[in-house]
Each structure stands twice: as structure tokens, then as C-alpha cells.
Amino acid sequence: MTRPITAGVDGSPESAAAAAWAAREAERRGLPLRLVHVGEPAPDSLVLAADESALTQWAGDLLADVEHEIAERHPGLAVTTDVLDGGGPAESLLAAARDGESLVLGSRGHGVIVGFIVGSVGQQVIAKAERPVVLVRAADAAPSEASARDVIVGQEGEPEDSAAAMEFAFTTAQARGVAVRAVRAWSLPPVFSYSPSSFALLDDAGGMEPYERKALGAALAPWRERFPDVPVREHVEIGSAGQVLLSLAPESQLLVVGRRARRTAIGSRIGSVAHAVLHHAPCPVAVVPNTG
Q: In what residue span(s) does the UspA domain sit (predicted)?
């Protein structure tokens, strides 16, 4: 079964950018495109009228307009549209994400995800989605301006901890004919966290930074072998992962981070690195669930 790339459409400039990004990606990868709408937001006049048929008509017209624009730019692309009216917005979008290769949504950044994704709903979708979620802003650069930039992916922990993010980054870079820049950030641990075994590992590697470079190289090895035509740049830097990735984001056409879902008494939460780049990165951001 061929999974589509799915884009959420809500009438905002951000969702228009998301649909355009998804259409370009679907065309590059030879995949169909699915445009979905969850019924919110509609114009105030329709909301006040509480006319269900008018809301349905508005949603259908919106999807038709976006589909028409995409057809003009990508005449060979297979496009389907759906109004998702079963369950709440989060549940509908999570179901759409589950059926797709990835889910692409519009984002204003700085803590606000627009349209039908507001506050806790956006957090639920990003934290619970079983497939990658890509956030795109209205100011996303035109393809000609960003075409030579790298796809940046964050790597941390053991190789398996970032395998899903690596696969997404390399697959995307291969489809675009660009390089992957793999980034591993590190910091000096507290003295009390050192142990004889950790000292031995550091001594064998020649110090902290060589150890981190060796760890990044080990994480990249299977992906270099699987994608031999994708150039790879390695970047190891001391600092917090969020800060290091954000410093490189202006040079990227896509920033890819892994996601470790965290459940608390108030619901699901995303990690601090994903949280930082989602709110502040100027380029599109892909959040990829760790399936390992």
C-alpha cells in the first residue's frame, strides 16, 4: 500500500504553505497527496450561523481551491481531499497521520500552532503521532532559494535512538539531491556522574569531543551504506542540542529531530529539543517518532 503525504488545510497562509510543501515533497518522492480539513476554523459568519451544511460547503470549497492551485503547479500529481468530521480535531489528525507517510501542518512558531491545532491539540498530535509530523511556516523559502541547503538531523544517544530520524532525513535528502548534515551536541557532565568505565571509554577515544565524533560516526555508518549517493557532513559541537540545532537552522531547508513522547499527569509532552526547534526554527521542522 502506497502511503500519501497528508497536509492539513484550514484556510490560513500557514496551511497554504504546508500544502505547497507537501505537494512538492509528494512529487519528488512519487507519492500521492492527501489534503484534509477537520472543520475548523471557518469564517465567523458561518460559525455564528451554526449552519452545518454551510460549514461543510465552506470546507469543501476550501479544499477544492487548494487542490486546483496544486494541480496547476503539479499537473501529474495524484491528489485526494477529505473533510474529517469524526471525533475531535486531535483524534482526526492523528488518524490521518497514521494512514500517511507524513503529516504536514502550518505553524506560526513561537509557541503557536495555527488553525485547528491550538494549544493542547497541537501538542497531542505532535507527541502522539505514529508517523513524522512536519511543521511549515507561511514564510517558508521558495524552492529556488533553499534548494542547495542541507537537510539537518539531530543525533543523540545510541545509534538506535535516532534511527527513525536518520532514515527520514536521508530519504528526504536523497529525493532532493542534497546533503545530510548530522549534528551531535554534547556537554560536560557533572563530576559525580563519571565512573571508572566512563573514564576508560573517554581515555580510549582521546577525550570528550573525539568520543562524541566517534559516536556520531557509528550512528551514521548504516545510513552511509544504505544511501551511498547522499553526501554527509558531520557536525559535533559543545552546547545544548536545541541551541546548536537552532544556530544551524538558517542554513537548512529542513530540520529533522527525533521525538521521545513523555506522558505526565497532564497528558503527553514532547522533548525539550523538539519543543525548542518547533517554536524558533525559521525553516520547516520534521518531528519523527522513535519507533525503536
A: 1-137, 151-289
**DSSP strands (E only) in 64-118:** 79-83, 102-106
Among residues 186, 50, 30, the alpha carbon closest in space to that of 101 is found at: 30
> 136, 168, 196 — which closes off a domain?
136
pTM across the whole model: 0.86
194 HSE (CA, 13 A, CB side)? 11
How confident is the model over 63-93, as pLDDT tens digits? Answer: 999 999 999 999 999 999 998 876 678 888 8
What are the residues facing 33 on neighbouring strands?
A: 5, 79
Other beta carbons within 10 Å of 257: 30
Range of the domain at 27: 5-136
Given a contact cutoff of 8 angstroms between Cβ atoms, the answer to whether 163 and 260 are in contact is no
C-alpha cell at 174: 536523497
